Amino acid sequence: MQHPGTTVRALLHHLPPLAKEKLRPAQIKAIENLEISLAEQRPRALIQMASGGGKTYTACNFIYRLIKYGGARRVLFLVDRANLGRQTLKEFQAFITPDENRPFTELYNVQLMQSNKLDRVSRVCITTIQRLYSMLKGEEQLDPELEEQSAFDMASLQKVPVPVEYNPRLPIETFDFIVTDECHRSIYNLWRQVLEYFDASLIGLTATPSKQTFGFFNQNLVMEYNHEQAVADRVLVDFDIYRIRTQISENGSTVTSGDQIDKRDRQTRKIRWEKLDDDFTYEASQLDRSVVAPDQIRTVVRTFKERLFTEIFPNRTEVPKTLIFAKDDSHAEDIVKIVREEFGRGNDFAQKITYRTGTARKITKVRSADGSEIEQVEWVNSGIKAEDLLSSFRNSYCPPRQVRCRSALGLRPHGAVGPSSPGGPRRAESSRDRVHLLPREHRQRRPAGPRPDRHHRRHRRTGAQPYY
Question: In this predicted structure, what is the pLDDT of residue 399?
Fold first, then answer.
């Protein structure tokens, strides 16, 4: 039995002064305010810092202090997707402790969970909410591909909160602290039972908190450091917005009965044709999620190309590094294809980075039992790693344009074009099919020309803007 003076709650009242030499003022304030909140025995705290403001480095510092001085036996670090977990592990490996001047991973074990077995000697465990739920259900293993998808994307198919029962192999006291790093707001409603299963203090890190996020953390915002302040502190750079709007991206549209449409399987992209019996009306929010209009994507890409050297970057002659954020893997496929066509360039000019990067779709036509011809789709390893493409994009003078699947909202560098769509709950779908509108049919109903406008003002909202 622990002596009362050596419990986590008691030790939080006697933490030593923070070593501030390698920290920015905002990071210092975030750590000190968090420790005050924990000492007051407030079980949940939220740190809001602009993307690029150093959230993960801040977390490494306060986690180190909680373990060394606060008596924490084990800390769970939750990320949204597996590739973010790999990045977090690298942050801990690179983190040099301020007092001992040694790498964190030399002092404490850090486990990036790639199986459903918890290493009991690890002091920091990095995983996704998907794997954590799988462990609580008692599953022996989780399909790695499920961790490459955002919990937000999975939540769009999950209509009711996930059920959680007590698992003696993972007691509620397993973790003393749980840190959620840019996990999408969906984890605070559909997935919240997984977080609340443990008897642990919850610390949230985010750049774009929502009302659900504030509510989940009991409105205990211990630090607010927005993009404007980060720009003023010269931590981040500012940017302009060049917005390209189309009629259907603003208001949606209607496809009349009698038109031929094709329905595409979300995973395999297999198409089947149908004739509409009734008018089909869709909202702007459904675009590129349950409804695909290739000609609308083409209009945006073509407008970007035509105005690139006249309005967006009037002094340039080469296409700059460009990130285009897609809503999901299928949307990214459509964008990559159209970008290559519109710019008249090859495969290296535009490449996709999503959880599907590293796999290639192989289609084989086979005969079914009734003699009809069907397509068999399987995913095979292509040998390409998303991390390698990102590294090439960062370090090469003339890298390929990157089309990335939307994840947690992020900030764009000055002049970047093609940010992600805003957050918010996705419309649940009854199947994996999307309605894929024909370009020819859709052109007859879309008013000619886009409606671009230039905003010569500072971006007033933290996070990314709508792509269209």
Answer: 61
Same domain, 264 and 227: no
Say whether both 248 and 198 belong to one domain: no
Distance CA 204, CA 34 (A): 11
Query: Are residue 256 and residue 224 in the same domain, yes or no?
Result: no
User: What is residue 89's predicted lDDT score, i.e. its pLDDT?
Assistant: 96
Residue type, 304: F
**Helices within 315-384 (DSSP H only):** 329-343
Same domain, 280 and 361: yes
In a domain, 467, yes or no: no
The helix (run of H) or strand (run of E) holding residue 134 is helix 129-136
What would the DSSP string read from start to end of 393-429? HHH-SSPPEEEEE--S--PPPTT----PPP-SPPPP-
Q: State the Cα angle at 26 between 237 and 222, rounded to 5°.
A: 125
Quick: pLDDT tens for 43-59: 999 999 998 999 999 99
pLDDT attached to residue 338:
93
**359 & 260 share domain:** yes
Residue 157 shares a structural domain with residue 44: yes
Query: Looking at the structure, do residues 160 and 249 belong to the same domain, yes or no?
Result: no
Last residue of a domain, one of 183, 215, 232: 232
Residues lower than pLDDT 70 in the chain: 1-5, 149-161, 183-186, 264-269, 355-363, 375-387, 397-468
Q: Which residue has the tokens 């150093």?
A: 54
> What tokens does 5 get?
């003076």
Residue of 447, 443, 446, 441 lying closest to 259 (CA atoms): 441
Number of domains, the chain: 2
- Helices and strands per DSSP (H, E), number in the chain: 16, 20
R_g of the chain computed on alpha carbons: 24
Residues across the chain? 468
The CATH number of the domain holding residue 171 is: 3.40.50.300
Going by their DSSP bridges, the two strands 323-326 and 401-405 should be labelled as: parallel
Q: Are residues 196 and 146 in the same domain?
A: yes
Q: Is 235 helix (H, G, I), strand (E, B) or coil?
A: coil
Residue where one domain finishes, among candidates 206, 232, 258: 232
Amino acid at 310: T
pLDDT, position 5: 65
- Separation CA 246–CA 435 (nearest Å): 19
Decide if 462 is inside a domain.
Answer: no
d(CA 399, CA 99): 41
Q: In the numeric block, which tokens belong to residue 62? A: 């306060």
Range of the domain at 444: 241-455
* Alpha helices (H) in 327-450, listed in sequence order: 329-343, 386-395, 439-443
Rounded Cα gap, residues 172 and 281, in angstroms: 48
